Amino acid sequence: MKRSKKELIKLFTGQMKTLRLRGCSRDIIKVFRDKLDEVLNKAAEMEIPKGHIPFVPVIPYSFMDIPKLMAMVKKDGKIGYTYLNQEKIFDHLEIPGNLYFIYDVKDGKDMLDKSPEQAQKLVKKQKRFCLTVAEAIALCVHTNSSAGHYMYCLGSYHNSLELVPGISLTISGPMLGCYKIETKNDGFGIPSCKMRAV
To answer: Exposure of 90 by Cβ count < 10 A (0-12 exposed, 13-18 middle, 19+ buried)?
Structure first.
């Protein structure tokens, strides 16, 4: 379904407000704001199914490291964290080097309880892309997705092709951890997007 400009402007404005409230720098927010017309035009032309998020702004690791990105994820007053070494996380998809947006985003609820290995094949079959760590964090910052289910970041690996990062909720708050690619963990979904654009 096509989304109205009014709906898209409301979404964009809300995302910029969230970034400001989560402590994102003014410089980063300004770059995103300068893309307003381009983002709205692109999203307005797309057929975005009901339940999908038209777009989400993404902050690459070169602009903010993973611990700081995770600190922007909050749940019930608790701040997100990770014990993973950022140097061991690597994306295996072609990702823009600048601040960018992902479009037609699914939160992964439709792929609950599948192993990462199974999910990768299904997402590819749908001609979509699995989200990287930075993209999954962005999704959690701007939606309540991680509260409804945990999520694998299948656009990234940790240390080897056998381990994938994932975001879950712990007693201490939202956590970025890592999981074996062939193991199915109940309650994990696989978020994805249709495209990425600077």
So the answer is: middle
